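Box S1 | Example of a co-folding query
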Amino acid sequence: MGLIVQKYGGSSVADAGRIANVARRVAEHARDHQVVVVVSAMGKTTDGLISLAQQITPTPDAREMDMLLATGEQVTIALLTMALQALGLPARSFTGPQCGLRTDTDHTRARITRIAAERVRQALDAGEIAVVAGFQGLSEADEITTLGRGGSDLTAVALAAALKADLCEIYTDVDGVYTADPNIVPDARKLARITYDEMLEMASLGAKVLQSRSVEFAKKYAVPVHVRSTFKANAGTLVTKEEQGMEEVVVTGVTHDRGQAKISILRVPDRPGIAAQVFGAIADKGIVVDMIVQNISRDGYTDMSFTVPRGDYTRAVAALEDVARTVGAQGLVHDERVAKVSILGVGMRSHFGVAVRMFAVLAREGINIQMISTSEIAISCVIEDKYAELAVRALHDDFELGRARGAAV
Ligand code: ASP
Ligand code: MG
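Box S1 (continued) | Returned holo structure for aspartic acid
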């Protein structure tokens, strides 16, 4: 009898009917497995709690924020446990602190430091289904903490690692990871397997199926993660370590991120310390810069361009206007409407000419490339936002990723 950890996201437990549905799914697995169920807050509960806090004060205290946010998941564990008991199954709910999930003291984005999982183990030994609140823990200072948005994924993976589970299943409203967004590319194909590294690239490139930190954790402890649908019975996508043969495929998927904005600082003096000053000003505001390009220097001046999440764009520009003046730059130009389109795959490590092929596809469609960045297993181009869907379709087609082209799942 194996042990599985199953995680159900907010949309899977959005109302009483859906909680009952989850209970039935859990019951099926509990027949021949020990099961730990990790749940998120119901539906958009966490968003609702955040907005409540904002109505009280624009700057809520981080400790109190965690006290508030942790309530969402606690509602779900109690209700799901009742639903399981109503089906005649022995079940018991546990908060993060009750599971011995300890974190550092960085409220609202705490990192896990250790998991005892003692009580979960006892429940399993007693033949019970353990129902655990995702997203929350207890800090080393004995305060309730949360693990950052989407943190229930991390709870599930971390528990799977601690309990040495055979599998961690993430149940969600999509039925797996696709070669591209199926809403844009009707021909997109569900991937049977994907490596941890590819999944991490996907998350950082804008495809939000799993929380990034949960994937890092899964990779570190080699936890196999199966992403699948709560509402369909078919198999999803297995996120796993790289195996032989996976490199034979040149490109695994095409992703896009339309939530980007581009900022350029023109004619910045080209001397040591300027980049540190410029990006320091943005980092101080807690804004994450993605792509950075610095042009070749002419007569002692250079231009710098970079992208930030569109939501942070106004604040970034405000922070930079001061810096631009201080360092004697000519000024700023910005473009709120850019998109990042990327191709990724572990196969890129061993295949040549992938970048050239990507650029040629975009050229053929008449799409201008504004910025380029590469990693070992991905190439990204910043383009005008209005061409994003066209670019994704053209790349998906040219790299023969679609169902029609055959590559069997
Ligand atoms: N409820 C939390 C959130 O909405 C955690 C999660 O769903 O994973 O971010
Ligand atoms: Mg979620």
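The chain has a mean pLDDT of 93. The two ends are 28 Å apart (CA to CA).
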